[in-house]
Amino acid sequence: MEIFDLPDKVKVNKVVPKNAFDSFTNSKQKQLFTDLIKRITWSYKLSETTTNLPAKEIKEIQIFYVELKQKEKVQGILDIMDKSIPYPIIFLVNYEEDYYFSTSTKHPHPVNENISVIDWTFNSEWLPKDKFETYSLPLKKSLDNVYEAFCFQLSGDTNTSSLADLVEHQEKQATLEAAIDQLQKKIKSSKTQFKDKVELNQELNKKKKELEALLTKTPESAEKS
Predict the structure, then answer these.
(1) 200 with 179: CB under 8 angstroms?
(2) Is the dihedral of CA 176, 209, 157, 128 positive or negative?
(3) Which residues touch 2 (CB under 8 Å, ≥6 apart)?
(4) How much is the pLDDT for 192?
(5) For residues 147 and 68, what is the distance between their CA atoms, to the nearest angstrom?
(6) What pTM was estimated for this model as a whole?
(7) pLDDT of 12 strictly over 60
(8) Mean pLDDT of 118-129
(9) In angstroms, how far is the first alpha carbon of the chain from the final one?
């Protein structure tokens, strides 16, 4: 499977056995690999050697092609693979004619060096092949820049200026959206007094304004805050 029109020197194209992750799974998770995953292919390895790009914090980027037996977002399975490998992984997940991208920022476990801790996950929607090819992975500047640029593509975020800020921004957005959803459900189902509903609506409006301010914050204003 050709992904991103990358040069031959970064190609690996090796099938990864599903049982390669057995030491990171319980019996239920092993069964998910069997039930949902058709094939895992280690497609590309981006490193200083294969790309001639300098590496700062990110030493390698792996690209995995994951073929499914049924159309389902399999984040739990991707997380298992991600935690078992210390380098960033870009997953292209496929079922028949549909595809989606996923990648997670992560850091080493403070106690167990064999496990990575996931900070944040970026996903695309399901896409037909002609649409997933609109995502690109230009090999420019450094491996850190390559990975950061791809995370920005997946997020669609134009309000932050670094990967760390992007993750923080996404976390705040998710927290506010969850709070808004919870308040809306509470207001809809609430049988409390009018005064209490007024207070809930005030809190809802406050959260909506905070979300609006977050989504309209420019990189310049983010640096000043």
Answers:
(1) no
(2) positive
(3) none
(4) 66
(5) 25
(6) 0.81
(7) yes
(8) 92
(9) 44
| Residue recorded with tokens 């990171």 | 24
Please state the length of the chain. Answer: 225
pLDDT of 35 > 90? The answer is yes
Residues 93-121: what's their mean pLDDT? Answer: 91
The span from the CA of 166 to the CA of 21, in Å, is 30
**3-class secondary structure for the chain?**
CCCCCCCHHHEEEEECCHHHHHHHCCHHHHHHHHHHEEEEEEEEEEEHHHHCCCCCCCCEEEEEEEEECCCCCCHHHHHHHHHHCCCCEEEEEEECCEEEEEEEEEEECCCCCCCEEEEEEEECCCEEHHHHCCCCCCCCCCHHHHHHHHHHHHHCCCCCCCHHHHHHHHHHHHHHHHHHHHHHHHHHHCCCCHHHHHHHHHHHHHHHHHHHHHHHCCHHHHHHC
Q: What is the pLDDT of residue 109?
A: 86
Average of per-residue pLDDT across 189-197? 71
pLDDT of residue 214: 66
Mean pLDDT computed over every residue of the chain: 86
For 69, phi then psi, to 5°, come to: -90, -20
Q: How far is CA 96 from CA 50, 70, 124, 137, 178, in A?
A: 31, 9, 17, 23, 33
CA-angle at 117, arms to 6 and 110, nearest 5°: 125
